[in-house]
Amino acid sequence: MLVRHFGNQNTTNAYYGSITANGSGKFNDINDKALSELKKMGVDYVWYTGVIEHATMTDYTKDGIKADDPDIVKGRAGSPYAIKDYYDVDPDLAVDVKNRMAEYEALIKRTHSQGLKVLMDFIPNHVARTYHSDVKPNNVVDLGANDNKNKSFDPTNDFYYIPNQKFVVPAGYNPGGDGFKSALKDGQFDENPAKVTGNNVFSSAPKLDDWFETIKLNYGLDIQNNHTKNFVPQPPLWKKMKDILAFWASKGVDGFRCDMVEMVPVEFWSWAIADLKKKYPNLIFIGEAYDRNEYKNFLVNGKFDFLYDKVGLYDGIKRLIKAEDNATVKDISLVWQKESNGFSQHMLRFLENHDEERIASKGFANNPWYAVPGMVVTATLSSGPVMIYNGQEVGEPAQGAEGFGGDDSRSSIFDYWGLPQHQKWMNNGAFDGGQLNEDEQKLRQFYSTLLQLATRNEAIAKGNFYELLAANKNAEGFNDKVYAYLRYTETKRVLVLANFNRNETKLKVNLPKDVLEAFNIEGKPLTFTDLLTKTEFSTNNINKGLMISMPATSAVILEF
User: Fold this and answer.
1) What DSSP character marks residue 297?
2) In angstroms, what CA-CA distances link 95 with 2, 51, 105?
């Protein structure tokens, strides 16, 4: 969840609206009732997004926080990934700004008291251009404080520099839109020499679509010189970043979702994660990763517990949900056969997060129910973790332009906004779904049932996997929009069928001879029970297959 979204009951949703106009959720909004409802839905971990203090256009100078220059901030609220102080939390999220850290610490304790664990962001590749820690521990040297700014690269520097050149704000940037006024809004930002921009832009004048609001951190990698590694002696940034992780772990945080991990040397992760786990052995690390050729490297050598499965499973399933011409379930086969073969339990699967289009948006499916087969596969293909994004379970459509992000089918991370569908479930703080209609309640119940099965059903949570496409190559109803597989242990077994077709599909499902023998069910009559709906399907002789009519864009998880 984006904390800024979760508790926000304000329905104004003005374009580029201020925090006063559009409101913001607070740490304190996430109360025991809200957390207990998430627990009931089948959630084990809550990833609180946007907790760490980041650059913003909102003025907190009265609270002793230096104002940021809006010319290098994206959106009125600012990006949660442009960190201003790694040792502080976002004042937007506090009821009492001066008490903001205590309010976050109370949320951590509350989350734990409901039997849930806490994840938060760690953004290791870049920081806000205005980075300055005003609450860091006394023994901490601030980022860049000892840098030699005359050198473009030095392994002892925390940043990369462009000597003899001043930073130039991207041409045409209108921070906060026409309605936002500020004495600092002048198209200028004083940074001399210019620092290298977060997405590896070695120019003093990054473009509007670059991560121009951020500066790149230097782990001793000479990027402009064939990425030469200068890791001995250890660059000072390494310890600084590990100490930041330790600071938050000491507050009871159970794990970190680490941003853009492939932009940071795997050697850093290997050292930092191993060192932190000596003191915090149960700490988990999730890596946002997009290079399928590097997955194994970051899991084995980088010591990550889990990595995003975006480029493989998410992309393939999205094509199927959208009924694109090139969509095929063979993409799902490729994931388990090649991409994550041998480590699929370490891949975090999802169909929504803050970076991606909402399922119910016009850019994706336009209908949250179209995602049912994809979500079932996402949650049951392996025994790894599955993630949903706040609002997904009630069909949040991300309609309209909020501000900086435009009308992009995403819930903005840059601007203050309320989530209309989620607000119906929130029901003025009752967190009971009281304003959801019957269809929306059914959708949330589907997610709840599925998430609980994913963690509590033995076959799905820890069983083996057996794909059934080869056995049904010429079977009735099977095409490249139907996927079928078994998950099983010695005592439990389920047959998963996913129909991505936009029409009803009659299937004859065959189980191959080796399966019939292994399960000792040859020639037997069998009853299959759909664990999602409790509907039963029967066959007099399993050797002759199971006949089942699948509605359009549907799925079943059949226990037998």
Assistant:
1) I
2) 17, 14, 14
